[in-house]
Design brief:
By secondary structure, the chain is an alpha/beta fold. Helices cover 47% and strands 13% of the residues. It binds adenosine-5'-triphosphate and magnesium ion.
């Protein structure tokens, strides 16, 4: 199978032929054209994953041509070929919608890496677009990203339950998309053109919450100078969304139960029963059943809310959604910040694929936004990721086997009996572990101590002290890590 299709537009035959040879041998399908006009014609004939475009063509200026191509195809990945690199060139290239540029003469390895990345990004973008289209057709939820079985099943359920008026309980860890799903239920329901009213129950004191929910009549309390509609009335015919339902007080729980059962209530201080037709959706990031067992949440209210239960899976249980979410938020935040397209480096992607995302999609969204805002060039590397992700890199990169360090226990092979002066103490074991971690990081930083200190998030002076204390021989740079370990004293 081809790795992807590439069109080369360059007037120099050596470059065309050279690129064709190189890229074909790497498994790409390659076509080429000599002029801008011929290139445009080829683009009309069939879709390509990538266009390699010479900036100075005999018949056209490449940048001009690119702008024309953009009007026909907003998404085609384009890498420019230029005779010289300059900041101005880079700026112009990004402004006219290129993903990247290559300067003549290039190293084949670099070029192949750039091409691979551009094709990969293009395929992801294409997949995302198709997915959005498919999701839109299937569910009409254009802003919910996901292709994992768990998400698709959930969205199927959302579509099924949307039509009814049944109360829905949405549960899931923080940041998994509970509010997003609640809105999706509303917008897929016959109530879509009526109000969706979110109530954040967590941040409001009980009496204030009740007056917000049910409204009050004039004089109900000192500051009630006029009657006021409550949120239940505002949500009439629509949907009311209780976020963090677990935080409401027992008194409010009782009142809420009554509204759910009777679909009517009184304003605070009022005497008249008000009837409403609302759909109730509640969300919780703690397990309500546990709270019921602990006597902190009314069991009858729990059953009333839990008519239909939608459980949002944490992101670490649907890692296949991570690349799509990254692409989705990359596009959004580049656009929002007026930046040219950005990509994560392979190293950064790997860290993010391996990460557990305790804050789920919201955390991922924040990571992307932060990286885009701080980025100064197209490729975004590990250094733009927050410490929580990078500290994982430190631990992950060092393949520590505790059995390498610990003396065997009695009964295990090699165990010795009695006091043994050659057996290492805990301090020696800790030192050895620290030494290995530091040597490993130095290795991976090309024995550049400043870089290693940055990756460890410690000052260079601290790293220096540790190197001295542990007797790590930094003059042995370039040798294998194993040798550096064994060169250390005490081994
Ligand atoms: N599947 C998804 N596709 C696209 N964006 C998503 C998805 N899931 C969540 N998000 C985005 O992640 C952010 C957090 O989602 P949301 O507020 O719905 O989570 P939550 O479960 O209500 O979180 P919390 O428990 O902290 O209130 C929002 O910006 C939302 O748009
Ligand atoms: Mg929420």
């Amino acid at each position: 199978m081809s790795k992807g299709s590439i069109l080369v537009v360059d007037d120099e035959s050596e470059i065309r032929e050279g690129l064709e040879l190189l890229l074909t041998s790497e498994g790409y399908r390659v076509s080429s054209a000599e002029t801008g006009a011929a290139g445009l014609a080829k683009l009309e004939e069939q879709p390509y994953d990538l266009l390699l475009l010479d900036v100075s063509l005999p018949d056209r200026n490449g940048l001009e041509l690119l702008r024309e191509i953009r009007q026909r195809d907003a998404h085609l990945a384009v890498v420019l070929i230029t005779a010289y690199g300059s900041i101005d060139m880079a700026r112009q290239a990004f402004k006219s919608g290129a993903l990247d540029y290559i300067t003549k003469p290039w190293s084949n390895d670099e070029l192949l890496a750039q091409v691979a990345q551009a094709v990969e990004a293009q395929k992801l973008r294409e997949e995302n677009l198709q997915l959005k289209r498919a999701l839109k057709q299937r569910f009409n939820f254009p802003n919910i990203i996901g292709k994992s079985e768990k998400m698709l099943k959930l969205l199927d359920l959302v579509t099924q339950v949307a039509a009814a008026r049944s109360t829905v309980l949405v549960s899931g860890e923080s940041g998994t998309g509970k509010e997003l799903i609640a809105k999706a239920i509303h917008s897929a329901s016959p109530r879509a053109d009526k109000a969706f009213v979110p109530v954040n129950t967590g941040s409001i004191p009980a009496d204030l919450l009740e007056s917000q929910l049910f409204g009050h009549v004039r004089g109900a309390f000192t500051s009630a100078v006029a009657s006021k509609k409550g949120l239940f009335e505002v949500a009439d015919q629509g949907t009311i969304f209780f976020d963090e339902i677990a935080t409401i007080s027992p008194e409010t729980q009782a009142k809420l139960l009554r509204v759910i059962q009777e679909r009517e209530f009184m304003r605070l201080g009022g005497t008249e029963q008000i009837k409403v037709d609302v759909r109730i959706v509640a969300a919780s990031n703690v397990d309500l059943l546990t709270l019921v067992r602990e006597g902190r949440f009314r069991e009858d209210l729990y059953h009333r809310l839990n008519v239909i239960h939608l459980q949002l899976p944490p992101l670490r249980e649907r890692r296949e959604d991570v690349p799509l979410l990254l692409a989705h938020f990359l596009q959004r935040y580049c656009q929002e910040n007026g930046k040219p397209p950005r990509q994560f480096s392979a190293g950064a992607l790997k860290l993010m694929m391996d990460y557990d995302w305790p804050g789920n999609v919201r955390e991922l969204e924040n990571v992307v936004e932060r990286a885009v805002v701080l980025s100064t060039q197209e490729k975004m590397d590990v250094d733009l990721l927050p410490a929580a992700l990078r500290s994982k890199e430190i631990v992950r990169g060092v393949r520590l086997q505790l059995s390498d360090f610990l003396p065997p226990l009695p009964g295990e092979p090699g165990a010795r009996t009695g006091a043994d002066s050659t057996q290492p103490s805990l301090f020696q074991i800790m030192d050895e572990i620290e030494r290995r971690i530091i040597v490993d990081m130095l290795e991976r930083s090309g024995w550049n101590q400043t870089e290693a200190a940055e990756r460890f998030l410690i000052p260079l002076s601290t790293l220096n002290q540790k190197i001295k204390r542990l007797g790590i021989d930094v003059r042995r740079r370039g040798r294998g890590a194993e040798e550096a370990y064994s060169a250390a004293p005490g081994k």
